[in-house]
Amino acid sequence: MTFRDRLAKSAERHGPIILAADTTHRTVQNITYNMNNLNDHICAIKMNFQVLLTLGIAEIKEITDAAHARDLQCIADIKLNDINNTNLDTSDILWRAGFDAIIANPIMGPEALSALVQKAHSVDNGIISLCHMSSSEGAVSYELQVGGGPLYKKFLEWGLAAKVDGVIVGATFPEIISACKHEAKDRLDILSPGIGVQGGSAQTSFANGTDYIIVGRTLLNAKNPSEMAISILS
Length: 234
Prior knowledge:
By secondary structure, this protein is of the alpha/beta class. Helix content is 49%, strand content 20%. It has helices at 3-14, 28-38, 49-52, 57-69, 84-96, 110-122, 138-142, 151-162, 174-184, 202-208, 217-220, 225-233; strands at residues 17-20, 42-48, 73-80, 101-104, 126-132, 145-146, 149-150, 166-169, 189-192, 212-215.
C-alpha cells in the first residue's frame, strides 16, 4: 500500500489532522504521550529538525514504531534539498528510522525531485514537496515572479511532473490552496500548516481544497488537546 493510501486510510479512521510534534520537550516519552492524548483525532505525526536533532536513530525508531502501532503515519519534516546522492542517502536513513514520508524542498530542481520520488515509491513511501509556506513572509519568496508566473506555481508544476504524493500550502493563504487544487485536482494531496497560532482556519482550508491540516502548538499547548482537536474541525 502506498503512503498516500495509508494516510487516507488512517484519516478515515481518525480524521484529517497531522500532529506537528514539534514540542519543546523532545523526548520519546513526551512525543508518545502527545500521540496517546490525540490518537483518536490524528492520522499522522510530523517531526521537524529541532526534534530529530535531539534524538538518536534508536529513539526515533521507538517513536515511529509507537505511531505505527497506533495506525499513524510518520513524516520527516526536514525540507530535504541537496544533490541526488545526498538526498537518496538521507532518505534511506529516514526510511530505516521508520518514516513513511519526507517533506522536500523542490528548489533542488525537477530532476532531483523526480529521482527522490522514484526512490521513495520503490519502497512504498512518499515525498511531500513545498509549494507555499504558511509564514507571513511566505509571499516574499513563494510568490516571486519566475518565468512569467509565481514561484509556487513552478513548484506545483514540478511536483505534479515528479508525481509527489502531496504539497505543502499554508492555511494562511486560502486563495493559493484553491489555485493549487484547481490545477492538481486529485493527482496529489494538499497539506496545510498554519492552523490556529498562525491564524489559518481549518474550515476555510478544507473549503478551498486542503486534504489534511498540520497542527502543532494549538494542540500541544491546549489544556485539553482532545477537545481542541474536535473544536478545530467543528
